[in-house]
Amino acid sequence: MVKCTACRRPAVAYLRYAGHYFCKKHFLSLYWRRVKRHIYRTGMIQKGDTVGIAASGGKDSTALLYVLSKMFKGWPGVKLVAISADEGAKGYRSESVKVVGKHCKRLGIRHEIVSFKKEFGMPIDKVVRVLRRKGETKGVCSFCGVLRRYILNKAARRLGCTKLATAHNLDDEAQSILMNFMRGQTDRMARLGPVTGVSRQDGFVQRIKPLRKIPEKENALFVLLNNIEIEKGSCPYRGEAFRGDVRKLLNIMESKHAGTKFTIVETFDKLLPALKEKQKGEKPNKCGMCGELTSGHTCKVCQILEMIKSGKVVSKRKRGSKAAGR
Ligand code: SF4
């Protein structure tokens, strides 16, 4: 039987990048130490903050909910509120939102649910139908991600949050860095990092990523070892092609050269101040349609909604009447 490097008890995990085996106790203590260190070193949560936790019910966001609850609940200076975005993918999100609700009840955290249907008048299922009718070839996630960020930000602002914590893990962050690098998007790179956003601007709730230094597999192990219920189903539209390719590439590199993902993120962090400095003078505009901040004239949300609206013109009823008039 393989034993824990620290105490010789039976091991539950082998962290290749560290070259050590860990028992349950030592794995969990390492996990906590690393999350706490990241939060304190970056100063991402301060006294007086109201932190919105983007909670989807999956392993990463559920780990985040428990971690922040254990660290900050009861602290007089920090308030927590969980926010779930229900995109409206049939048979998927409604279940995971229920799981979040159960955890919040147990932890005594307020739980807010916002939905695409209420905010945009249609669930993601309908958005997908319109996109497919229009022959749109981009992955659904590129559209859904923009809409989701928008409603989470809006809800966080309404709830008086000063920070919005997302469950991005080490794998997500390494993928985003590499994707932006491959696409040459330096402006987007400046928006990565532990505290997202070039500067704090009106209407934009700063995003923080407390689990950014934790590999995806370790979040899964954290919830498993703590016996925490998670929603295991996955979104039917998941699968952004480019991210999927980068994920595979990084996993191959990690299996051949353990620690690659850490190296990418840590090297990027050394470059981040320079990237942020370069973007500092660039002031965002207000979207001409909705007034939200944007780098162009019309924000991406309005662009997507306009595109969907124009797609609706070819509705079944209209197609039917056109056909009848031929
Ligand atoms: Fe939206 Fe993609 Fe996430 Fe599904 S996987 S909820 S489509 S971002």
Number of domains: 2
Count of individual beta strands: 10
> For this structure, what is the CATH homologous superfamily of the largest domain?
HUPs
Roughly how many Å apart are the termini? 77 Å
Helical/strand content category: alpha/beta
What's the shape? globular
Q: How do the strands of the widest beta sheet line up side by side? A: 5-4-3-6-8-7
- The string of secondary-structure elements, in order, is EEHEHEHEHHHEHHEEHHHEEHH
CATH architecture verdict of the largest domain = 3-Layer(aba) Sandwich
- Main sheet summary: 6 strands, mixed
Discrete helix count: 13
Helix-residue proportion: 40-55%
Quote the CATH topology of the largest domain.
Answer: Rossmann fold
CATH class of the largest domain: Alpha Beta
The value of Rg in angstroms is: 21 Å
Bound molecules: iron/sulfur cluster
Mean pLDDT, as a whole number?
88
Low-confidence stretches: 313-326
Percent in strands: 5-15%
